[in-house]
UniProtKB/TrEMBL annotation:
Name of this protein: Sigma-54 dependent transcriptional regulator
PTM-bearing positions, type 4-aspartylphosphate: 67
PANTHER family: ALGINATE BIOSYNTHESIS TRANSCRIPTIONAL REGULATORY PROTEIN ALGB, TRANSCRIPTIONAL REGULATORY PROTEIN
Classification lineage: Bacteria, Pseudomonadati, Bacteroidota, Sphingobacteriia, Sphingobacteriales
All copies of domain Sigma-54 factor interaction, residue ranges: 167-396
Record keywords: ATP-binding, DNA-binding, Nucleotide-binding, Phosphoprotein, Transcription, Transcription regulation
Top-level division of the source organism's lineage: Bacteria
UniProt-listed SUPFAM superfamilies: CheY-like, Homeodomain-like, P-loop containing nucleoside triphosphate hydrolases
Annotated Response regulatory domain residues: 18-137
Length: 469
């Protein structure tokens, strides 16, 4: 070799892994590289362990083959153990396989105790080397998956255990909901959360879980409104290998993943009657059957559901199962629209102002009086979500240390359109009007209309079909 280390990045048919080989013997490096480049994604070779820091900082290494002796005549393996400890001090999850030409059981045991994954003798048999690399690759992939899940769970748990930090408001209706939440959360009662788009249904679901006995377990959010009907069973209940064309391995569904914790089924009013029947069966039996299997698997989940649709009216029209409604609404929470929360509008506005001022590194301290008046007089068809977006934009646009009415960009036309909407209008009619207005405003651009309404494209398409727009 011309340099101290070299890389070979050939497309491999074997393992999706990058292997770093460290050995002072050129023949060993050449032999290992020629064999492994056909078996793995990438092979990096290096003659000196002093290059380890540079190589690990520049490459996403999965497996490290580390020789144990580098000084001429050395055979005690002390150098290898030193560099093993050094590698694991960088990241304890590195997979390190030690290599030596001197068979020593005590040394091998010592190396394993210090964190080595395996130990192989030189010269090796290629089949043995590949088997060792293959097992190490699977271990590395499993470790990464577990770490990723742990990070997700830690992040969710941190968010879940902050009391009522996420629920901002002092209106009587909000205080009553908080009192109800404190009574319901410690139980396993099923909760149905109702309210217009953007009223905070997901926030309340988080708070129920965060104040429950399951707060240290998984909170699984499933947006049924964006879930393709053909994927409903495989996503929620899982599937077995070979159940369909792309089912290359067994996969648990959302209910299994949420076992012991809480599952939040958002936009449940969008389910068709056949899917409602399948969900009801799972809720009644507390078991799931993966696609392609006949085995029942028990699940222990706390159920929270939410919708902006009038389920009682849908039951009367036979578009929602009454027995499913009975099953999901042991306790029902009806979230008030923002236009009915009075001065909570200013509390929320100031809360969002502080959040976004910090995010965008600005020193905005207040809303001026005209801006407050504008916020209080606007009817907020998009509710808290719309207010949040308005304040984020205002913080970005503001040049001073206070937000003005110009920064809010709430035009008189928007007031006129919104105030014409009667509060007593049926929820379905109101939703249809909002969808039609958004589509008209953006001249049929579904992506922009969906963004304004706080919906996914799939959810908006369902509403267009539902209302015959």
């Amino acid at each position: 070799m011309n340099g101290r280390y070299s890389g070979s990045s050939l497309e491999a048919e074997g393992l999706d892994a990058t292997v770093l080989i460290i050995d002072d013997d050129d023949d060993i490096l050449l032999s290992a590289r020629l064999f492994l480049k056909q078996q793995v994604k990438q092979v990096i070779t290096c003659k000196s362990p002093k290059e380890i820091n540079v190589l690990l900082s520049k490459n996403e290494v999965d497996i490290i083959l580390l020789d144990m002796n580098y000084q001429k005549g050395a055979s005690d393996g002390r150098e290898g153990l030193y560099w093993l400890e050094h590698i694991l001090s960088i990241d304890k999850d590195y997979v390190v396989i030690l290599m030596t030409a001197f068979g020593n059981v005590e040394l091998a045991v010592k190396a394993i105790k210090k964190g080595a994954t395996d130990f192989i003798l030189k010269p090796w048999e290629n089949e043995k080397l590949f088997a060792t690399i293959s097992a190490a690759s699977k271990l590395r992939a499993s470790t990464r998956k577990v770490k990723k899940l742990e990070k997700i769970h830690t992040s969710l748990h941190k968010d879940m255990t902050r009391g009522f930090e996420h629920i901002v408001g002092e209106a009587d209706g909000i205080k009553q909901l908080q009192n109800t939440l404190l009574k319901v959360a410690p139980t396993d009662a099923n909760v149905l959360i109702l309210g217009e788009n953007g009223t905070g249904k997901q926030v309340f679901a988080y708070e129920i879980h965060g104040n429950s006995q399951r707060k240290n377990q998984v909170f699984m959010h499933v947006d049924l409104g964006s879930l393709n009907e053909n994927l409903f069973e495989s996503e929620l209940f899982g599937y077995a290998k070979g159940a369909f064309t792309d089912a290359k391995e067994d996969k648990p569904g959302r209910f299994e993943l949420a076992d012991g914790g809480t599952i939040f089924l958002d936009e449940i009013g969008n389910l068709t009657l056949p899917l409602q029947a399948k969900l009801l069966s799972v809720l009644q039996n507390r078991t799931v059957i993966r696609l392609g299997e006949s085995k029942e698997r028990k699940v222990n989940v706390r159920l929270i559901t939410a919708t902006n649709m009038p389920l009682n009216e849908m039951v009367a029209k036979n578009t929602f199962r009454q027995d499913l409604l009975f099953r999901i609404n042991t306790v029902e929470l009806l979230l008030p629209p923002l236009r009915k929360r009075g001065t909570d509008i200013l509390l929320l506005a100031n809360h969002f102002m502080q959040v976004f001022s910090s995010k965008y590194h600005k020193e905005i301290r207040s809303l001026n009086h005209k801006a407050e008046a504008v916020l209080l007089n606007y009817k907020w068809p998009g509710n808290v979500r719309e207010l949040q977006h308005v304040l984020e934009r205002a913080v970005i646009m503001s040049d001073g240390n206070e937000i003005s009415e110009e920064d809010l960009q709430l035009s008189p036309q928007r007031f006129t359109q919104t105030t014409a909407m009667p509060d007593e209008m049926a929820l379905g009619d109101m939703e249809k009007m909002m969808v039609q207005k958004a589509i008209d405003k953006h001249k049929g651009n579904i992506s922009k209309a969906a963004a304004e309404l706080g919906l996914t494209r799939a959810a908006l398409y369902r509403r267009i079909e539902k209302f015959g727009i």
